[in-house]
Amino acid sequence: MLRLIWVPKEYKKFSFEEMAKDAKNTLAEVKSLQYKLAHQLADATVFLNDLADISEEEAAENLRVIIPYMQHFLDKNSE
Prior knowledge:
This protein has a domain at 31-79. The protein is an all-alpha fold. It has two helices and no strands. The relative contact order is 0.10.
């Protein structure tokens, strides 16, 4: 038996393929922005180290702390 179902106009051209493409594009854009943000965070850390006029050893320690954090953050979000 065939049933007729009313579909609102906004869903007449609904496509799962288009939705999947949009999702992939959005995911790629988010990953790109995450890497840009990580680079900006690293640049900001270096700038703040210069601005704070701390020693080279203290600046190196700051970078030793933040680099693994950023790598973990990017690896976790790239899955």
